[in-house]
Structure formats: structure tokens, C-alpha cells
Amino acid sequence: MKLIAITLFSIMALGNINAQEKDTHLWENRLVLMLTNSKDNSDFKQQLGEFRAQEKDLEERKIVVYQVTPKKYATGISDSPDWNKGDNFYEKFKRSNTNFELILIGLDGGTKLRKKEYTPAEELFEKIDSMPMRRAEIEQSH
What we know:
Elements: H1 2-14, H2 19-25, E1 30-36, H3 42-53, H4 55-60, E2 63-68, E3 72-75, E4 84-85, H5 87-93, E5 100-105, E6 111-115, H6 121-129, H7 132-141
Parallel strand pairs: 1-2
Antiparallel strand pairs: 1-5, 2-3, 3-4, 5-6
């Protein structure tokens, strides 16, 4: 798992994420990568809309969303995010020939879920909530 985390954050560095930012994610945030060949892709737009409607639940689960296209990436769920150049980011994570892919990366840097289509936020939350680290977070907050 350590290798996966190192690989993930090495790839992010290639996408121009500065070292300080990438280091803040490991053991601090879960990442959701939304990879799309076009910002006009229907699955991408539906997923983004779903996440906007569930913003509080994303924050509660420490989820940082990355919007990733073949040439750039942005952090967050804004309709007009600050885009960064990142040619390698898309290529390194894209595993299918579909136009959309969603990847959940856990606090430990490991890939926890990979989908090739729009995924209801509730399905993502159920996956996260079943993880031992998340159950511990819930227990600590009560």
C-alpha cells in the first residue's frame, strides 16, 4: 500500500501539484478522481452535480474531488475551478477506454473503488463508511 501511495503522489507531482499540497492528502483526505475526456460528458456533469448537492457529506468524509481531463485538472466541485496543466495525470490514472472514470483513493493512498460510469454519491459514501478508518472516525465523533 505504501508503494501505491508513493506512486499516487509522484504522479500528482507530475501534474504540477506542489509538494506541500500533495503531502497534505496522505492520511488527511480521501480523493475522488473524476477522469473525463470532455467536461461536457454527461456522466461527468451528472457526477459533479451529485457532488455539489452532497457537499456537506463530502466534507464530513474528508473527500477532496479532482476533476481531470486529458490536458488539465482542478480541485473541488466548482463549475468554474482554477484549472492546472497536467498532461500525465489523466494518462496515469485512466484504465478504461470509456469517456468517464471515477476513482476513490483512501486515506492510505490505496485505490478503494473504480467505476466507469456515474456513481450515486450514496454508493460512494456506503463504501467509505464501511472502511475501518471511517468507522473509527464516526466512533470518535460520538
